[in-house]
Amino acid sequence: MTPPNVAGDSSGQLDLKLLYRLIVAQRVCLAVASVIAAGILSGWLVPAIGSVFPGGWTLMKANTAVVVLLSAASLLLTGSKRSDRRLLLGRLLALIVFLLAGSALLEHWTGRAFGLATLLSADSRSPMAGLMSVQTGTFFVLMAVAVVFDGKGKGIPRLIVDASSIGLFIVFLVVLAGYWFGALKLVGQTTLTRTSPQTLVCMALLGFAVAVRRTRSGYFSVLGGVGIGSQIARKALPFALVLPLLTVRGGLYLFTSGVVRMEYAGGLIAALTSILVLALIVAMGRKINDLERALRDLSLVDELTGIYNRRGFSLLGEHALRDGRRASAPLTVLYFDLDGLKTVNDTLGHDVGSRLLLDFSNLLRMTFRGSDVVARIGGDEFAVVGRYRDGGLAIALRRLEEATEAANRAGGPYRISYSMGEAHRDPGDGGTFSELVDRADAMMYERKQRKKAGRPA
């Protein structure tokens, strides 16, 4: 039995444990966003409650609080294990979000009031009464579109949901950068009509909830997979989001505090960004190497020789034993120890020793049948599992001796020599595959000791 050429692909498989934790975190985020919005809305509806809130709470408008509550409810209703009725209700709530946020954007663009912004509260202190900022309105329009089109199949609907989800994060990062760098126009239109800190927190929580949904199927599904790419993406994502903000903010601080001039601040930002990107690339490379090493350990094939390794030998040997019992067929295990490998390594080098291992594995592969399991199970130890009847094993072993002698006659820096043990399981015998291997190993060791002592094996 030769090693298969087709490897399993886990790139599209989800990490179910991670997904479960993300779903729990998603529900917590929706609950926190709802509590914040409900608190702000109660302050608008009941002035006595609002009077005990700290200053600045009115920056989050009443209609914004309603939109947050409706968005959280729509995401919850259209989540996993949804019924048709819940799905329909969730999409209806998303349409209401689209209407409220879209009307706010129309008011900004046309200058015409539609009355929806002040439906719950007059908000007389703001020059644009009750109106959410353009940034906030855009975020929730995209949120509504993502919810309405989610689950409508592949193709155009999926592209719409993915584009809307990416748009959510762009808007959030723009507003966050506006606060971080003191750029008012990125936050809102005026000091009284802007995305409030409370709204920004709710946007982060709701955006995370959307991202969790897209890890199951969509653009962000790479973040929820079990493959190497998914693991690297999860490790790199926080650094990719935070490092640019930190480096630019640090350079800006040096400039505004008068420590350095603008050109020096720009140079320092560029140098620091390059160093951080380099560190991130090195960290990712090390992580990929670690994962690749772990993947090789899980492989069934020996990397040097191309035949099965110990894990593949044990797995396929157990399978052959079970099949033999069902078919009442005998099973034979051959255990080989390659003589003189250490001497070759010490005198000629490990490259020549590797060539010796490769030559012997090729001899085994050419000698035994394609249905046999040929494996390298240790440094210089090899094994074969096969079903042999009526002298078939003797013929195979004679072919191996002849092939080995022919290889040695061809000349080379080393001679190929081996010790072999064998163990058989007849159809009626019991015992495990491991016990069968141990018997073959014990016979090989006994013959090897006789060979060293100069006695007939």
Structure in words:
The protein has 457 residues and is mainly α. The chain folds into 3 domains: 16-225; 227-298; 310-452, Reverse transcriptase/Diguanylate cyclase domain (Alpha-Beta Plaits, 2-Layer Sandwich). The chain has helices spanning 16-45, 47-50, 62-77, 84-110, 134-149, 156-181, 184-187, 197-216, 228-256, 262-298, 310-327, 341-348, 350-367, 392-409, 433-452; strands at 331-338, 373-376, 381-386, 418-425. The protein has a 4-stranded antiparallel beta sheet, sandwiched between helices. α3 (62-77) packs parallel to α8 and α12 (341-348) runs antiparallel to α13. The longest helix is centred in the middle third of the chain and has 37 residues, at 262-298. Residues 2-11 have low confidence and may be disordered.
